[in-house]
Amino acid sequence: MTTRDSRTLDFYAAEAGAYAGREREAEHHRIDLFARRLPAGARILELGCGGGQDSEAMLARGFDVVPTDGSPELAREAERRLGRPVGVLLFEHLNEVDAYDGVWAHACLLHAPRPALPGIIDRIHAALRPNGVLYASFKSGEAEGRDSLGRYFNYLSQPDVVTAFGTASRWSSLDIEEDEGSGYDRMPTRWLHALAVKSPES
Asked: Could you give the number of structural domains in the chain?
């Protein structure tokens, strides 16, 4: 199943410069929680890196970060910030196995179609090494739809997130926190933050 939504990709293509260049702080609090579970110098794949702010913060912490985005235009913007190559990667093209200590997916898997999300989590799980850590954030809701800017969101509940992450035994832990925030549209938003650790036996 394809994870491309042409309207969403067209939005990021048109808005890449403004989106990447806006005054946005890296997610330092979430990065700290993520980093505490990783070994020093851990290899991290970032999905949907956007303007590269979070990759920049993780690189500053001494991690070996592989930044990627599904939008070629945003990848180019992130390259300007980071001074290093940024891969163009759609979720369904992630095929690596036991390659990363961590996968950082801030505000990107929320664009994946609901039916495709479990398969994407399967790919991320396979790409993680034993005891690898996944962080992903989603906009909270009950039904998929589009925001005022025309972007597709899957809008998940906490039980939806648990279901998408699959069999509980393949994760040593799965913690989900909910808080209030916003996004590029500046609208009040309930966010779900999932932090999962891959089981060493899976």
From this structure: 1
Q: Is 148 exposed, middle or buried (0-12, 13-18, 19+ CB in 10 A)?
A: exposed
Tokens of 142: 């009950």
pLDDT tens, N- to C-terminus, the chain (202 residues): 456 789 999 999 999 999 988 877 789 999 999 999 999 999 999 999 999 999 999 999 999 999 999 999 999 999 999 999 999 999 999 999 999 999 999 999 999 999 999 999 999 999 999 999 999 999 999 999 999 999 999 999 999 999 999 999 999 999 999 999 988 888 899 999 999 999 999 8
Rounded-to-integer distance, Cα 185 and Cα 66, Å:
27
Helices (H) and strands (E) in the chain, counts: 6, 9
Q: What is the residue range of 38's domain?
A: 6-198
Strands (E), 39-185: 43-46, 64-69, 87-88, 100-105, 128-139, 145-146, 152-153, 171-181
Which token pair is 52? 């590269």
For residue 202, give Cα distances in angstroms to 14, 97, 133: 41, 12, 13
91 belongs to a structural domain: yes
